[in-house]
């Protein structure tokens, strides 16, 4: 009787493993449709401060506790950044991104993905990070060839002041 029991347990275990193995590869799941790629607009950037630093007078410095005395008073808050992305001449993304942090002194963050059909696309990205009301401080246009299942990233490098397409 124990032999039949062992064979039964073996059959149940093999059936469970076969079920797990079948479900690990089926049904197939794709995050993006076939013959498509992803354009990812993602970067972290801190804009200019909201106001200019102001030089403190001798009287104002004297009123401060000794461990907090400084020559200039600079506001902590940063300006929001304004970002636009055009894909094939159409406005795909437009946003005014506020600074992060409790005091509004952290960088602004953008993370957007766009699923596009594979092929050639015209991309134009623009950003305003200063007090100007019109126009843009940083801009890049380029034509890119998007392969199927490709992840194309648009990043911003503040040290060079330009957008990176890769």
Structure report:
The protein has 166 residues and is of the alpha+beta class. It is elongated. A hairpin with a 4-residue loop joins strand 9 (151-157) and strand 10. The chain has helices spanning 2-25, 58-63, and strands spanning 36-45, 54-55, 72-73, 81-87, 90-97, 108-117, 119-128, 138-146, 151-157, 162-165. 18% of the residues lie in helices and 42% in strands. It has a 4-stranded mixed beta sheet with strand order 6-1-9-10, with no helix packed on it. Strands 5-4-7-8 form a 4-stranded antiparallel beta sheet, with no helix packed on it.
Helix content bin:
10-25%
- SSE string, helices as H and strands as E: HEEHEEEEEEEE
For the biggest β-sheet, the strand order reads 6-1-9-10
Low-confidence stretches: none
Amino-to-carboxy terminus distance? 67 Å
Total number of strands? 10
SS content category: alpha+beta
What is the number of helices?
2
Largest sheet report = 4 strands, mixed
Overall 3D geometry?
A: elongated
Query: What Rg, in angstroms, do the CA atoms define?
Result: 28 Å
Strand content: 35-45%
- How would you state the average pLDDT, rounded? 91
